[in-house]
């Protein structure tokens, strides 16, 4: 999986946080999400460093926001370089130490949307 994909997997955690699961299934998800949390933390820290390096600042040293106020403007002469670094960050391949294998029976009662089932496909065994 790509580093940027860890956030989609963590959205599954948000869907499951209040569900009662069998202990083994809960353990698998908890261990899986802990690894993803570490990866997403690295992503956020590295992205912040990129923004600090390439973000435009006003005369007070504050970041200049985009017109929609959802992001930081990038220095015009550094835009391509910044986007290259963000692309590189997004595309880092994540190799997890623990990759759970879920049975269809374990996931059956979770009422997950298809997009989440699709994400979990590499971790589902049909046996």
What does this structure look like?
The protein is mainly α and 127 residues long. The protein has one domain. The chain contains 5 helices and 2 strands. Helix 1 crosses helix 2 and helix 2 packs antiparallel against helix 3. The chain is elongated. The two termini are 23 Å apart.
Major β-sheet profile: 2 strands, parallel
What gap, in angstroms, lies between the N and C termini? 23 Å
Q: Taking all residues together, what is the mean pLDDT? A: 94
Name the poorly predicted regions. none
Which of globular, elongated, flat, extended, rod-shaped describes the shape?
elongated
Which range does the strand content fall in? Answer: under 5%
Number of strands: 2
User: What is the subunit organization of this protein?
Assistant: single chain
Total of DSSP H or I helical runs spanning 4+ residues? 5
What structural class is derived from the secondary structure elements? mainly alpha
Order of helices and strands: HHHEHHE
Give Rg in angstroms. 19 Å
The helix fraction, in percent, is 40-55%
Q: What is the domain tally?
A: 1
Order of strands side by side in the largest beta sheet? Answer: 1-2
């Amino acid at each position: 999986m790509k580093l940027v994909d860890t956030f989609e997997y963590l959205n599954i955690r948000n869907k499951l946080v209040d569900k009662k699961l069998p202990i083994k299934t809960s353990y698998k998800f908890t261990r899986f999400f802990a690894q993803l949390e570490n990866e997403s933390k690295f992503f956020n820290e590295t992205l912040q460093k990129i923004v600090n390096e390439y973000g435009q600042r006003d005369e007070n040293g504050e970041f200049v926001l985009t017109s929609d106020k959802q992001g930081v403007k990038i220095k015009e002469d550094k835009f391509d370089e910044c986007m290259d670094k963000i692309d590189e960050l997004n595309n880092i391949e994540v190799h997890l130490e623990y990759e759970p294998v879920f049975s269809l029976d374990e996931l059956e009662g979770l009422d997950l949307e298809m997009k989440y089932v699709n994400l979990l496909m590499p971790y589902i065994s049909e046996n």
